Amino acid sequence: MSAKLLSMKKPALNTYNLYASLLSLIGPEENAWSWVMNHFIQIVRFNSYQTYFFDTHRLLYHHCPWVDAFCIPKSMIGTSDSSLSGFIKEQLERDTYLWLSADQYYLSASPLHQKHHFVHELFLFGYDERQNIVHIADHFKDGRYEHAVCSFDELEQAFRSSYAQGKFADQVYLFSKHMNMQDEFNAEQVYFLLDAYLNAKDTFHYNKSDNCMYGVAALEQLPADLLRLVEGTHADLRPFQLLWERSELMASRIQYMNLRLQLDADNRLLRTAMTQKNAIQAIRNLLTKFNLSGNEVLLNRSQSLLRQYIEEEKRWIPELMTAVSRTIG
User: Fold this and answer.
1) HEC states along the chain?
2) The model scores a pTM over 0.70
3) Tens digit of pLDDT for each residue in 4-44?
4) What is the pLDDT of residues 191-239, one digit of tens each?
5) Taking the domains of the chain in order of start, what are their residue ranges?
């Protein structure tokens, strides 16, 4: 009986499975962190779904020099239980992580187990043949990215019953860590993305049918999204968690650039970044309370604070861009 458990670090981002899984894999190594500092600045809104992501979203792993990524059609794995379990074990023994779609109705780790069918991404990072378990990660409870286990039988059912949701649901992704020794930090890219964020520029050409908005212009839709809430519905907290993580990373980015490039000698920009992080955290907390109580006073207060947050972004991002531009030789 064999077992394998691949390394998983605490991720800097966990709003969505892809970000959390990718950053859990590459870990906190200095050169990997330099790559993180180049990204996760620009925001994109998919208007059809009223959802917010970082730009490049699902294609991030293709741009990450620390990851070798491959995808294969789900149909190539075979139809028997043994072919799936054998494939999983074979890949993990090769130090390869798996990312696939699974129906949480069949996963006992999920609160949706035997209640609702919900197909979502699942990250696989280990197995134990003796215990008949697979180590998995996803947002199982309260929207938190968590590690859990399931049986091979559960995973088989969840995997086979996941109905097609487009090409991503029909693929299995294989990730292996690539020991990239290059320092990937690029101040020019940081400036480019800050400019695109401030001026609502398209930084990644999605299919025109996706109908996307970018940067501050995308954020300006958030108060309207809250206004459209009807009685008995909950606010989607994911955009606010995403913005909180983005703000936390922005503060880390300023500290990182200050150490390397003397970006912010008096820490004025860092103080503003921390204030913005606290502001979006307060908004997220108010909306959490609104979801529990339905108190519209909390919703109205959230909208007011959100507008202030957006106006402050418009004010201070040009200052940050000016500072970044001085570091570019």
Assistant:
1) CCEEECCCCCCCCCCCHHHHHHHHHHCCCHHHHHHHHHCCCCEEEECCCCEEEECCHHHHHHHCCCEEEEEEEHHHHCCCHHHHHHHHHHHHHCCCEEEEEEEHHHCCCCCCCCCCCCEEEEEEEEEECCCCEEEEEEEEECCEEEEEEEEHHHHHHHHHHCCCCCCCCCEEEEEEECCCCCCCCCHHHHHHHHHHHHCCCCCCCCCHHHCEEEHHHHHCCHHHHHHCCCCCCCCCCHHHHHHHHHHHHHHHHHHHHHHHHCCCCCCHHHHHHHHHHHHHHHHHHHHHHHHHHCCHHHHHHHHHHHHHHHHHHHHHHHHHHHHHHHHCC
2) yes
3) 999 999 999 999 998 999 999 988 777 888 889 999 999 99
4) 999 999 999 998 865 555 568 899 999 999 999 888 887 666 889 999 9
5) 3-29+67-177, 187-327
